[in-house]
Hints:
Layout: E1 3-14, E2 17-29, E3 34-38, H1 45-52, E4 60-65, E5 68-69, H2 75-82, E6 86-89, H3 101-108, H4 116-120, H5 136-147, E7 154-158, H6 166-181, E8 185-189, H7 193-198, E9 201-206, E10 209-210
Parallel strand pairs: 3-8, 3-9, 6-7, 7-8
Antiparallel strand pairs: 1-2, 1-4, 4-5, 9-10
Helix pairs in contact: 3-5
This protein binds adenosine-5'-triphosphate.
Amino acid sequence: MTIVAENLYRFFHAGDDETHALRGVSLSVEAGEFVALVGPSGSGKSTLLQCLAGLDEPDGGVVRLAGERLSRRPEAERARLRAGRVGVLAQSGNLFPHLTVAQNVRLVQRGTRSLSHLAGLGIGHRADAFPEALSGGESVRAGLAVALANDPVILLADEPTGELDATTERQVLDLLHRRAESGTALLIASHSNAVADAADRVLSLEDGELR
Ligand SMILES: Nc1ncnc2c1ncn2[C@@H]1O[C@H](COP(=O)(O)OP(=O)(O)OP(=O)(O)O)[C@@H](O)[C@H]1O
């Protein structure tokens, strides 16, 4: 099970301005691989993750999930292809505000699985808290708990450790490592050196191109 991007382009227009957020990005992440995606602010990391997740549509190129084309399909089909296989942690909007952490996880969970990964993420004691009561680091970890709720085969995560202290970051990276060892493909966008150090491979984006 892999995720593959072939020659992805994404442009944004605002008035006369055109931003070339992705300019011909090709990559693949294999099962069990922990890949870090680094690059300066604005280099296209979030755009790339959104396109890989099928939450944004590239203007050119193709995304394939386990050999099946994800791009240029109706959202309902993209959702079906993603469901239960791809976990996504975005930069915001990962939690429904009117549900507790545990309810957020339960909402996306298929069947009855345990909530034990909350403890692994160091937020077991916050299971009954509402998102507005969480610290920045707690809410990122709660979002990660939602993304991991169905034991996805691919995890796409945007800055999962950005708001964490060094000790908690280590804890989250250990958990991600164990996921990779059990076969999950991880693509983690981050500015943190600790994430790049923990990864098997580092992809570096600059101005919408991999270097
Ligand atoms: N919806 C949008 N409309 C217009 N421009 C956008 C949009 N989304 C992203 N961009 C632009 O595309 C470029 C890439 O943005 P992106 O968020 O992918 O970068 P990033 O590497 O994730 O940055 P950061 O590290 O700050 O999160 C930036 O110039 C950004 O301003």
